[in-house]
Amino acid sequence: TAVRQKVQIAAPLHYRNLIRRHRRFLTPAAAKTKALQGTEPEPLAGFAMRPPPSPPLLPLLLLLVLLPSPPAVAAAAGPTSLEALRAAAGRRGASPATQERAAAGVLRRLLPSHALSFRFQIDPKGGVCGDSSCFRISNVDGSSKGGAEILIQGNTAVELASGLHWYLKYWCGVHISWDKTGGAQLASVPSPGSLPRVKGTAVKVERPVPWNYYQNVVTSSYSFVWWDWRRWEKEIDWMALQGINLPLAFTGQEAVWQKVFKSFNVTDRDLDDFFGGPAFLAWARMGNLHAWGGPLSQNWLDQQLALQKKILSRMIELGMVPVLPSFSGNVPVAFKKLFPSASITRLGEWNTVDGNPRWCCTYILDPSDALFIDVGQAFIKQQMKEYGDITSIYNCDTFNENTPPTNEPAYISSLGSAIYQAMSRGNKDAVWLMQGWLFYSDAAFWKESQMKALLHSVPIGKMMVLDLFADVKPIWQTSSQFYGVPYIWCMLHNFGGNIEMYGVLDSISSGPIDARTSYNSTMVGVGMCMEGIEHNPVVYELMSEMAFRSQKVEVEDWLKSYSYRRYGQSNVEIQKAWAILYHTIYNCTDGIADHNRDYIVEFPDISPSSFSSQYSKRRSISVVRKHPRFLGEVSASLPQPHLWYSTAEAVKSLELFLKAGDDLSESLTYR
């Protein structure tokens, strides 16, 4: 049944008028997740399959997110605006044939025995997906022996890979996770020639929101730092299978900065004192420290740049839109001498370097200084020279590093405008992607007037905000949908790359739906912003599915499906164990930020509450007060390792897992 829905967007008047003028774009299509001209596929034996229900047609926010022109020009573009946006995306993206080969490559690396069992087809003109992003799964009739049995269509290779994953999960009982969390359970896939058929003509699944974001600015140090291309290729495949189409791409930026800073007469010796070592790049990039763990060899810089080009090439082949870094103001100390009249501030001491000037107290160039725009523009242009015109979305988090010197809204607005000018002069289509963590971590400063000043310093549609901690502390609820600015609902989940079992499954299964369907919603995507990866696979599988679900998930039923797929067979003890885990370890509702730090992952000590814990507590408090970007609580009582669940119930779950060992002990995912 077709449903009509009035979509209202909290935006300036000219955007509301644009929406009224082109209201026909906002008419939802018929139910999207359905078996076309047939019935829904039968659930796989042993678990309940729940395809996502019907989302509405993507609102005009998709158009607003990447408008290539100022508001007046956009309004004048009339009904062709959406088509122009598509054309611009196609100009940056790979050809349909390239994307089809890329999707086939994902299949070949995952399941080589079935490389010929699937056919992939890009839908470039919207014949299958219309105005939204989708995948469509159907049978290939009359296929010869050894030929394709299943056809997967979609408008990018990410959609094709997502469709492949959806079929393997809900028709073949497959589970795919990181190798460190058990890897892929593929034993349940029938042999080629015997794949389950889709009942009816086809099953079509659409994204309710266009973007699925991935990574945190520190994941590059906690998880990626020593990866080679082989490991990156595996991760990009995982990303495509999970439907991620907006990944952060930070590798190799030091080699680009080297060229940019040299053009401003900074020497190699100056840069040796500026860049952090490989494992500390994230904090050097944010201006927390300098030189620590360095210097970086030229060979390492060149190797990382070459690796980044491979990463970006594969992302583009798969139809992803990489998010590249931009200039946040962090400069070498040499800038003070080279540009004595520039407004450059020395930051205070951060964490772990004890005020030693050899490592601490970096320098930040004020966005209000004209030099800021020159450096920012040069960096964007150098990236385009290295990689080509591959994206229009850039990350910048200047205010996570440094609270503005005054809370005067006009001043904050001028800073935001300058940051955006540095991007847009390098790329006229630039969109600023900003982490919204500062609005939570430094809430005492960022009141309504200050938030509006920053958020509205850029034309609506030229900024997206990551509601970074929406799984626990959603900012959209307290900021009137970020005062009309498009945002992405994100799950943070992990701090510091720690590996404790932890999650809030109910929040994940309902939070994005509540945000998207709320009054005046400006939500345009979902995202995973964990600081470290390769842990808690149940959390990341459910969160990934929310990119394709338009209604809340019944978690208990979903976990029955999950446990069947993860271990390759139905097991009563395992189902009971997961029901307990759902209501204990994966049902943390205390709202405390710094989980993943329970007793089992604390540094060894006689007692977790003894001297070291108190010392850590005092030290962390002093750090947080000086640096609001530090990912911890801002109150005087920082969270210490604690339990939020019954240990007796958790032990019951462990006992049930052990009982299941006779049947599952050979399974890597079980182990």
Quick gist of this model?
With 671 residues, this protein is of the alpha/beta class. α8 runs parallel beside α12 (298-317), α9 packs across α14 and α16 runs parallel beside α18.
How would you explain this protein's 3D organization?
- InterPro entries: Hex-like_dom2, NAGLU, NAGLU_C, NAGLU_N, NAGLU_tim-barrel.
- Belongs to the glycosyl hydrolase 89 family.
- Residues 213-549 form the Alpha-N-acetylglucosaminidase tim-barrel domain.
- This protein is an alpha/beta fold and 671 residues long.
- It folds into three domains: 81-206, 2-Layer Sandwich (Chitobiase, domain 2), CATH 3.30.379; 215-548, TIM Barrel; 554-598 and 640-670, no CATH class.
- Helix content is 39%, strand content 10%.
- The chain has 26 helices and 18 strands.
- The strands form four sheets. An eight-stranded parallel beta sheet has the order 9-8-18-17-16-15-14-10. Strands 1-7-3-4-2 form a five-stranded mixed beta sheet.
- Strand 5 (175-176) and strand 6 (184-185) form a beta hairpin.
- Residues 1-89 and 610-636 have low confidence and may be disordered.
Structural class based on helices, strands and sheet pairing: alpha/beta
Q: Provide the spatial order of strands within the biggest beta sheet.
A: 9-8-18-17-16-15-14-10
| Overall geometry | globular
Distance between the termini: 46 Å
Q: What is the rounded Rg?
A: 25 Å
EC number: 3.2.1.50
Catalytic activity: Hydrolysis of terminal non-reducing N-acetyl-D-glucosamine residues in N-acetyl-alpha-D-glucosaminides
Organism: Aegilops tauschii subsp. strangulata (Goatgrass)
GO molecular function: alpha-N-acetylglucosaminidase activity
